Amino acid sequence: MARNTTSDVYIKSFIAYLTVEKNFSNYTVKAYKSDVVSFFIWCNHLSPDKINYNKLREYLYFIQKFNYKKTTISRKIAAIRTFFKYLHKTQYLSNNPAENLTAPKKPKSLPKFLTDDEMLNLLDNVNINTPAGLRNKAILELLWATGMRVSELSGLNFEDLNLDENEITVFGKGAKERIVLISERAKKYLIQYINIARPLIAKEINTPATEKSPVFINKTGYRLQNKSIRNSINEIVNKIELPKHVTPHVFRHSFATRMIENGADLRVVQELLGHASISNTQIYTHISTQHLVQEYEKAHPHAN
Q: Using CB atoms within 10 A of its CB, is residue 271 exposed (0-12), middle (13-18) or buried (19+)?
């Protein structure tokens, strides 16, 4: 297709406008010029009066494939909007096709989760021969058994534990209180940590624990922080060479996914996770379905 130089003329005029009238910085002018030129290269230097809103949206979907940062996408949109606004203002164009231009929403990626085998491999490779190791074992077992957030676990005090009923009170986002349930396995390691490991972790601190004392502590006797929990997970993941990026939130996703796969009511899972809206919980039904499809395709001889 032969190049239409009309766009070049308009771009040159636009750059002069940004520099002289708008007094934009050299950096911004250069970036805007690059963004507008890239757009017209993409559309084969189509004349600006042939550009419509749908064409602009098509371009935005195109550039989303390159995983630009949100700030870069925003700047590219701003450059195109400013360019067409200028053409309309100066009456080069009778209408502004970019007036309502916004970034198309990216589809939400599904949360990552661990399979049962991966979870057990991780849990079974925690070294419990040290006080800190037994503490970490109790932490990971609790994350897996309850689906609580790492900040909720870190914030636990002794008054929040009701181990006779296998219940723990947690305070989630917005200080909302809820009850989570723990398994017998998780309770076993939690009790071992409290009775055996916790007094040894900060053995130089002689202050007895009270109802207001943090359950999980570091060697100075203060509340264990989220970062320390993440570090302990990373150590185990690296040890077993698990080819996944595992965070405390992956335990939460794994808990919810397994609950849904095993037939738990969506409202029950919502309550256990502390989601304000059921829509936040529904994403785990998509994960469950996707996982079923993957397992079917691997197992069934006629799946492919």
A: middle
